[in-house]
Amino acid sequence: MRVEVINTGSELLLGQVLNTHLKFLADSLLPIGLRIDRQVTVPDGPAITSALHDAAARSDVVLITGGLGPTTDDLTRDLVAAYLGLDLILDPLILATIEAYFARRGITPTSRIQRQAQRPLAATVLQNDHGTAPGLYFPPIRRPDSSLSPHLFLLPGPPRELHPMFTQRALPILISLLPSPPTNTMLTYRTTGLGESAIEALLGESLLNLGIEVGYCARLGEVDLRLIGPTATLQSATPIITSRLGSHLVSKENLSLEMVVINQLIATRQTLSTAESCTGGLLAHRLTNPPGASAAFTQSFVTYSNQAKHHTLGIPTELLESAGPVSAPVATAMAEAARHLASTDHALATTGFAGPTGGTPAHPLGTVFIALASPHLPTVVERHTFHTDRESVKILAAQAALDLLRRSLLLHPPT
Hints:
Elements: E1 3-8, H1 10-13, H2 21-29, E2 36-42, H3 47-56, E3 61-65, H4 76-84, E4 89-90, H5 92-104, E5 118-119, E6 124-126, E7 135-138, E8 151-155, H6 159-177, E9 185-192, H7 196-208, E10 213-219, E11 222-229, H8 231-245, E12 249-251, H9 257-267, E13 272-276, H10 282-287, E14 297-302, H11 306-313, H12 317-323, H13 328-342, E15 346-352, E16 367-373, E17 380-385, H14 390-411
Parallel strand pairs: 1-2, 1-3, 3-8, 13-14, 13-15
Antiparallel strand pairs: 4-5, 6-7, 7-8, 9-11, 9-12, 10-11, 15-16, 16-17
Helix pairs in contact: 2-6, 3-4, 7-8, 9-14
């Protein structure tokens, strides 16, 4: 089945909102054997009809997101009904559901809200448990020009509404349309410390010889290796990947680096704190993303200035002046102080010149020192130089800090 996605919303094309729908929908469809063949983003208005007309000519399923709200720019429902030659009716059950939603929150709805309770009789309502705009599913319908429409799914724009609706309401319908169970699956291996060309040189030819589809997705400090093929064949690829990537392999289950670190700490009943300067709390932010992180991550000290390093962590003024705030001795002192103050098993510290100002001849812009203090081991300090912009330096520094801890936990498991 050929699947296309139409994302609607002028705010997407104006850059006001980041469009994350494609990744979610693609990730959700692949396990049932479907892949998105094409995606287009269009503004609110007549462009929706044009995009639908183009997609319908070559697709079996079209997923349309956005434009189901109560305001004048929410036109998707009306335009799709007109495209199919269907009249809209006011559905009293939808209206009652919306009114109950507002009543639970003590809000009086405006008359505009009735627009969201309109639907063609031919549409199946996809209940929205996290908002007011229901989704709609249209089976293939003979249009006024005698052409047959594809399966159409109208989904809300906000991710907090779209995600559960698609998973709980739309996906079961799609599964029922499939002629047979999927034959292929996808595995994603997360790596760090190597570029995609280096990973391809190590693995590409061997994996392609297995007859599977191989892809790479590079981000700052990490690369995802994507394999698609029969389950048995994919399983035979794992030993090859594991042996050749070694410690660069972060996860075989598509887990983030921070999730892997938190899981390692929880499994060994160890705790972690951080002391951050140049990363400004980004390291702590990533460590608190995994569910259950509080079982391992206890405290963060964001000490951006020299005064904060001295007053909060107790770093001697003499050390800050003699070694400089961006130095191995200061990074070491920060990690050891955080570990002591938070009473944790491990502590990570970051200090560096993220730019665009600062730096010295000895420590130019992009220089970052990362320290790890752990029990029964000397504090480890790594120096990195990231030749990139300010935000990227912060991202790469946090990535390197997490990976330093990950590698240390693998090399030195608790006794």
